[in-house]
Amino acid sequence: MSESTEIVVARSSAAATPAGNSKVRRSLIGGLVTALPVVLIGLALLVFAPAYYTHLALAAFVNLIIVVGLQVFMGNSNIANLGHSAFVGVGAYGVAVLSTPLAMKKLSIPDAPFGLASVELNPFVAAVLALLVVAILAAISGKIISRLSGVAATIVSLALLIIVHSVFLNWTDLFKGNRPSSASPR
Predict the structure, then answer these.
(1) Within a 13 Å sphere around the CA of 150, how many CA atoms are in the beta-carbon half?
(2) Nearest residue to 57 via CA among 34, 69, 68, 41
(3) Whole-model pTM?
């Protein structure tokens, strides 16, 4: 590299850093300002609302998180990700299976593999473990899908969704197939 090129590179990287930090800071503040009313409304509902409205609000917040996550991915990558709901399903089933009381598991999934029929965890711990499992699955599938672009990536994400759906339907020892699962705790 010549001396003039090095000076231009040094100037451009030095000039880009403060502007980049300013944009990140502004984005974080904008996100916090947007999220703050939602969090405050959620906390008010948890404290003051009857149980039915609290249940509705929690379901709405879960759906909000799912939609925002999908929009962040699809809006930034410009690729339709149809497998997003597969990760949501794996996480939801993971929390439900890990946090279901043992007495209910004896009735609903007595033959659960990996000793899951004898495991009952705090819902928060179950959510963290399910999140770790989903993160591992997402990293593995992300390695594959990130090599693709456009329609091919969309088709592979649809294939992932179909595979996860088939596992949910056909692994009846753990997921009960088409039968409803009434074992999730309240």
Answers:
(1) 1
(2) 41
(3) 0.68
